[in-house]
Design brief:
- The protein is α+β, with helices and mostly antiparallel strands and 279 residues long.
- Helix content is 54%, strand content 21%.
- It is built from 7 helices and 8 strands.
- It has a 3-stranded antiparallel β-sheet with strand order 3-2-5. It has a 3-stranded antiparallel β-sheet with strand order 6-7-8.
- Helix 3 packs across helix 5.
């Protein structure tokens, strides 16, 4: 009996050790005393629900199982879009669509966790959406509907400045702000297009008028120059010059004459008077 009992007892101890090892692994996995914070994240440790003042950087961190919990907050660049209705200064209905890029300021991660929400997304939903709607309505009311189109850059900068200020109060940083689109009623949009077209036609007409005026001035200048040249030529014509030109013309005619008299009936023989031969 004793020879068979010793091996059974040894096997029992091995089985117990294996079971205890597995239980320890399971327990450690369940308790999870180690937390890994990745790049672009920050950790907020709570002890029995109370947040510590420290902000934990990326890396491996230990916590007391059951007593402590590590909450991870994203501090990378985030993208958000929103849209809403507002009224312009001239009481036109305006539908605005915006897009923003933002991130959580790591220095304010604990404050945001305590006062707003346990994640960056929750904080953004609670702060950015109402702040953006308020900023858009406040700035839109300063401009007429037409100015919202013609002064779009100024409107964008004003909304972005107001929204940035509101977000900074709560530890969120606005990186980029853009107005994707302004949408008006169909009738007002058509009126704006008609006015823009009229302005373009007016500018074209003004440019054409300027071109015509320049061309007219060029023609006047050209005519004046020609008249001045003719007047100068008349001043240079003298009786001696006329006599010289007459002699030059006669010489040219004699040079070109072939010796034959023209066959004409009646009239005087040009250039030379011939007398009959005498015996």
């Amino acid at each position: 009996m004793s020879s068979f009992g010793q091996p059974a007892s040894g096997a029992s101890r091995v089985i117990k050790l294996v079971v205890l090892g597995v239980a320890a692994v399971v327990l450690l996995s369940a308790l999870n005393p180690i937390t890994v914070i990745s790049a672009g994240e920050r950790g907020i440790k709570t002890t029995f629900g109370k947040a510590d003042d420290a902000v934990y950087e990326p890396g491996i961190h230990f916590k007391v199982p059951l007593a402590q919990t590590m909450h991870v907050m994203d501090v990378r660049l985030q993208k958000g879009e929103g849209e809403g209705d507002a009224a312009s200064r001239d009481l036109q209905s305006v539908h605005t669509r915006i897009a923003i890029n933002y991130h959580l300021d790591p220095k304010h991660a604990v404050e945001v966790f305590r006062n707003i929400g346990p994640t960056t997304d929750i904080a953004a939903d609670r702060i950015i959406i109402p702040a953006a709607q308020e900023a858009v309505k406040a700035v839109t009311a300063r401009f007429t509907a037409e100015e919202l189109v013609t002064r779009r850059t100024e409107v964008r900068d004003a909304i972005g400045a107001l929204l940035r200020e509101k977000m900074m109060r709560h530890g969120l940083v606005l990186d980029e702000f853009a107005i994707v689109n302004f949408a008006f009623s169909r009738s007002f949009a058509e009126a704006i297009e008609a006015k823009v077209k009229a302005e373009q036609e007016k500018l074209k007409a003004e440019r054409d008028l300027q071109r015509i005026e320049v061309e007219a001035k060029q023609k006047v200048a050209s005519a004046k120059a020609e008249a001045d040249a003719l007047a100068l030529q008349r001043q240079q014509i003298t009786p001696d010059l006329l006599a010289l030109r007459k002699i030059e013309n006669e010489r040219e005619a004699i040079r070109k004459w072939d010796g034959n008299l023209p066959q004409v009936t009646g009239g005087a023989t040009p250039f030379i008077q011939l007398s009959p031969n005498k015996p």
